[in-house]
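Lecture notes, unit on protein representations.

Consider one protein chain, 68 amino acids long.
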Amino acid sequence: MRNSAYIVNMGCMEKESCPTLFLHNLVDWHIEDPKGKSIENVREIRDEIEQRVKKLVGNLQTKQEINI
């Protein structure tokens, strides 16, 4: 993780358990936890992740600044 261009955190920001808190180039997406959600909500969360990943890949390919 230390040599990564960017590290995507999808929502874990608990100091006791989140390994990304003290790393540079962190992009925090604040994704809603799907645990206990209906299948419809889980699909919406999945689709949001898919769109963000596609945007991230596109930005990395064109070497744009990550503002997702």
